[in-house]
Amino acid sequence: MIILKNDNEIGMMKISGKVTGSILYELRTVIKPGISTADINRYVEERICSEGMIPSFKGYNGYPAGACVSVNYEIVHGIPDEGRILQEGDIVSVDIGATYKGWVSDAARTYPVGTVSEKAGHIIEVCRDSFFGCLRYCTEGCRLSDIGNAVQRKAESEGYSVVRDFVGHGIGRDMHEDPQVKNYGAPGKGPRLLKGMVLAIEPMINEGGHETEVLANNWTAVTIDRKLSAHYENTVVITEGAPEVITLDERDERGA
Ligand code: MF3
Ligand code: CO
What we know:
Layout: H1 7-30, H2 37-50, E1 54-55, E2 67-71, E3 74-76, E4 91-100, E5 103-112, H3 118-134, H4 144-157, E6 161-162, E7 168-170, E8 177-181, E9 198-201, E10 204-206, E11 212-214, E12 221-223, E13 229-231, E14 234-237, E15 244-245
Antiparallel strand pairs: 1-4, 2-4, 3-12, 4-5, 6-10, 7-8, 7-9, 9-14, 10-13, 11-12, 14-15
Helix pairs in contact: 1-2, 3-4
The protein binds 2-amino-4-trifluoromethylsulfanyl-butyric acid and cobalt (II) ion.
């Protein structure tokens, strides 16, 4: 069942989303060669708590941190680690969530570490573009699968594959609500979008094949072929007109 949110509820999600978006923007200058993935997590947890909010991921199904930090061929759910030091040329995906008065926001970006190769920069850019390209289908009357179809068309037109094993989701009082938001598939299927739906839309695209596996820590999802992966996510409010992207910092119209 898809839970619609009223204006008051959306107002609280926007307060949460503003903090999430702002932290992800700040990370652009925090992330550099020599820091660990645990340093990134510490920054995120401290900032969420300094706003009087709760890191939504911590303790979720036993997840041990406030951020997921996934490097290079890691797709999502990388566990922060003091010993995992970022190197010049890496790409790192950071996924965070904040809970304000019980309302959750969820967003992710992939960042270059120092100067990266053209191919690494390109997958980051295409992943972000695939998100912004799907927004024209995020309006009342479109169908759910129009979103994933738009993401897939963009990613595949640039030679990337789309991850199937992880999907976006409805979001509200729970981080994961109905519906599942696939990043692939035929258009024109699934429920019609309605004002008051709130979706976490999160393309995950791979340089090689779409196949994934989960490492022995039971969390970290990686590409089977160990080629690069990028992730870009925002919490999006559906309206009768243009969608509201509530986790995008105003200092960066197109996101970090
Ligand atoms: N942000 C992730 C998602 O979009 C959730 C993180 S899973 C957690 O589904 F366990 F780390 F919380
Ligand atoms: Co999500």
